[in-house]
Amino acid sequence: MGEKENRNGLNGRYSRQIPILGVEGQEKIRQARVLIAGAGGLGSVIALYLAAAGIGFIRLVDHDRVDSSNLNRQILHWSGDINQPKTASAEKKLLALNPQISLEIDSGTIDESSVSVFAGDVDLIVDAMDNFPTRYLLNRAAVARRIPFFHGAVRGFYGQAATILPGRTACLRCIFPEGPPAETSPIVGATCGVIGSIQATEVIKYLSGKGTPLGKLLFWDGLHGEMDGIDISRNPSCIDCGPFAVGGEGT
Amino acid sequence: MKVTVRAFAHLRDILGKELEIELPEGETIRGLLAALGESHGGFQEALFDGPGQLKPLNNILKNGRNIDFLDQLETQIGDGDVIALFPPAAGG
Ligand SMILES: [Zn+2]
Asked: Quick one: how many helices (H) and strands (E) in chain A?
């Protein structure tokens, strides 16, 4: 079909999702600007599905290089990419998959001072980090800008996901006041596939205006093959989204 | 009063997925955990580092609210409350 595809994709690349999302939904996706924070296990899955879905602009940030220990789960990176920056490795695959998207890669580090730049001109943030301190920075940036934050995390056969809509739902800090201690998490690669796919689904739903956002903390137990929703609610005195939060919304 | 406990990840291996427990009126989270520790071997070790010292790996939610924001272990439980014991994942 090449890139002379029908602009709406009715006969081509997007022909199997437009019946679900609508031409308008597809157009909203095409106009969307998304930050994916991390190009590891979750980021690989999220970036592949969002690029394939035709998200117009993707900013993918990761400061790591590909290591052989990544290859059981980080499906954007292959054996020949070892020692390459993850962003360069990701760019090769994502643009080969869908040259229609605009992809911005950045090998910088997400920290206190850079987070507002990375999050400054996007419609939403997808959490594909491997640590809670950076997740909290992203959570705070999302709350400050009142843009959604799609949380995901994995460990072993377990994973969790939550869709955080500032002003409407609990934020990451309301759910987890403190992250678990830093560790090198054991991870079964397919767990990243489950959780990353849920996050990508939530993003596509949100952008195209379909369905209802995930309203609970979703917990995936791969060992039992079960998924559960855990009730979550806002903490009125949350340091990140409550009235006393610096740059918070003051509700 | 009756309280529902939902356990996730490795805590499920100890407690089972969900259980109902009968507690005296006005019991606290601390009392609930002690009762669970008596009835389920390995629970105490999974949850605490030392006496009264919760491992940072564990989150306890009462009806969706993290007890960190309530009265921590002294948080009072009421009839019909749902307590979730949840060790969050952090990897990506
Ligand atoms: Zn909050």
From this structure: 7, 8
Render pLDDT for A198-243 as a digit per residue (tens, 0 to 9).
999 999 999 999 999 999 999 999 999 999 999 999 999 999 998 8
A32-231: CATH topology: Rossmann fold (3.40.50)
Note the ipTM here. 0.90
Domain B2-86 has CATH 3.10.20.30: yes
Side chain identity at residue B15, one-letter code:
L
Q: Which residue of B has its CA nearest to A190?
A: B92
Q: Taking CB atoms and an 8 Å cut-off, how many pairs form between chains A and B?
A: 98
Test B12 with A183 for CB contact under 8 angstroms: no
Domain boundaries, chain A: 32-231
Return the ∠ at Cα A202 (arms to A159 and B89), rounded to 5°.
Answer: 15
C-alpha–C-alpha distance, residues A200 and A205, integer Å: 9
**Most B CBs within 10 Å: which of A220, A233, A240, as the mutation test of the B interface?**
A233
Nearest CA among A71, A64, A152 for reference residue A106: A64
pLDDT-flagged residues of chain A (< 70): 1-11, 246-251
Asked if B63's CB is within 8 angstroms of A233's CB, the reply is: yes
Q: Which residues, including other chains, have CB under 8 Å from residue A4's CB and lie 6 or more apart?
A: none
Which residue among A154, A160, A178 places its CB closest to the CB of B56? A178
Q: B82–A183: do the CB atoms touch at under 8 Å? A: no
